[in-house]
Every structure is written in C-alpha cells, then in structure tokens.
Amino acid sequence: MAKSGLDKWFAQKWVDIGSKKKDGSFSKCGRSKQKADAKRKYPKCVPLAKARRMSEGQRKSAVQRKRSKAQGVGGKPTNVKTFAKASGGLISNSRRAGAAVRGFDFKGVF
C-alpha cells in the first residue's frame, strides 16, 4: 500500500541543504542543544530526494531566504518556500511546452 501523509513524511530522510559535507553528502536535519550544534546557522531541511534534484543555485537561494528572515519569537522557526515564486505568477516561456498538452488557457503550476 502506498504511503501518504504523515507516514510518508516520517519515512523520508530529511537533510539540511545549508550544510554540505566535504564528501558531497548532506548533514542530517536539525540541531541539538549541544554547544557545537547550537552555533550552527538555522537549517533549511528538505527530503533527500528533493535535495538531490535541486541545482546548487536553488539550494543557495532557499537557504539564503530561510536565513535572511528574522527567526520567530521564542525560537520558533521561520518557514519559507523551498522554491522562489516566479515573477508575475504566470508560467514562464521555458516551461510553456507543457501548456500545449493542457491548452494555452491553463495557468496552473506544472
């Protein structure tokens, strides 16, 4: 049976895309209360499969947006979108090829 919802979320391996190791792998998501980990910058966590699909620029952009926002009161994390919004809200010309299948009136997300 296919996993969905929380079962799927817990089954995924979440990694911090803001801290890449020398061997090219990613650190585990989160920080502990130990002094060494407490000094680390705020983690931007995504599932490992998504982290591998993202380009280096996409990862840097997501981490920058996460860290540029002021952290919430009381240590609550600030949530940001993993991918920045496209300007104008319409689909870009580079992605218009898929619109031919759905028709040009379709303005949804691909």
List the helices and strands and how they pair.
Blueprint lengths: L5 H6 L2 E7 L5 E3 L6 H4 L6 E3 H6 L2 H13 L30 H4 L8
Antiparallel strand pairs: 1-2, 1-3
Q: Could you name the key traits of this structure?
A:
alpha+beta, 5 helices, 110 residues
Largest sheet: 3 strands, antiparallel
- Describe the global form: globular
Domain module count: 1
Task: Report the structural category.
Answer: alpha+beta
Spell the H/E element sequence. Answer: HEEHEHHH
Unreliable sequence segments: none
The overall strand count is 3
Q: Which sequence of strands runs across the widest sheet?
A: 2-1-3
Helix content: 25-40%
- How far the N terminus sits from the C terminus, by CA atoms, comes to 26 Å
Average pLDDT, all residues: 75
Per DSSP, the total helix count is 5
Rg estimate, integer Å? 17 Å
The fraction of residues in strands falls at: 5-15%
Characterise this structure.
This protein has 110 residues and is an alpha+beta fold. The protein has one domain (6-70, 80-102). It has 5 helices and 3 strands. It has a 3-stranded antiparallel sheet with strand order 2-1-3. A hairpin with a 5-residue loop joins strand 1 (14-20) and strand 2. It is globular. 10% of the residues are buried. The model has no long low-confidence stretch (mean pLDDT 75).
